[in-house]
Design goal:
This protein has 208 residues and is mainly beta. The protein contains three helices and twelve strands. It has one domain: Glucose Oxidase, domain 1 (3-Layer(bba) Sandwich). Helix 2 packs parallel to helix 3.
Length: 208
């Protein structure tokens, strides 16, 4: 079975408050012989729109950019870890889980229910820096979460981003895991190949 864990990119979708809004504008053109109509859509959005990947350069000067992220980090076994009913993912919560053989992890929280909200939700579940350090100590390759940032909305210094990205652990944000049971899967999360970028939208799927 294949689970599409990407959110649709569309006009009016949730974006981080300081990010540019999405603008999709389709223009019709008549074919040269007039036999049919050709549609071409203009796409304008931020690099961290919807389901997206954070390259280390997103926060760290001189760190690898999007095109330098290894594809091997983005394809392979992944653990979907459910953390229901919690305002934040803590180190203590992670210490109670089995991490044997886990290379990648994406967190299913109450955030996945927020994609149906009419607007941005600023009290989303986030990853505490102690939990980020726990994952870095275990040398995971990728960490994902089901809303638009792995740090809390009120965070001014983005500690969990720095913990992970400084270890070249890529961050996958903006997932929709609402229909996905906790467990082990194969992940494919390929961003647009934007040269020198700090991040890009991703079509992410889980396969079991």
């Amino acid at each position: 079975m294949i689970y599409d864990i990407s959110v649709p990119v569309r006009n009016g979708m949730h974006v981080w408050p300081s990010d540019p809004p999405v603008s999709l504008e389709t223009t019709p053109h008549a074919s040269r012989n007039g036999s049919h109509t050709i549609l071409v859509t203009s796409i304008a959005c931020g690099s961290h729109t919807g389901t997206h990947l954070d390259a280390p350069s997103h926060m760290i000067d001189g760190a690898p950019t999007l095109d330098e992220v290894s594809l091997e980090a983005l394809i392979g076994p992944v653990r979907v870890a459910a953390v229901p009913g919690a305002p934040a993912i803590t180190r203590g919560a992670l210490e109670g889980m089995n991490w044997s053989g886990v290379e990648r992890v994406v967190f299913k929280t109450d955030n996945s229910l927020r994609w149906s909200d009419p607007g941005f939700f600023d009290r989303f579940v986030y990853l505490e820096p102690g939990a980020a350090r726990f994952l870095a100590e275990r040398k995971v390759r990728l960490v994902g979460i089901d809303y638009l940032s792995i740090d809390g909305y009120e965070s001014a210094d983005h500690p969990s981003h720095f913990v992970l990205l400084s270890e070249s652990i890529v961050i996958l944000e903006g997932l929709d895991l609402s229909d996905v049971p906790a467990g082990d899967y194969q992940l494919v999360a390929l961003p647009l190949k934007l040269d020198g970028a700090d991040g890009a939208p991703v079509r992410a799927v889980l396969i079991n």
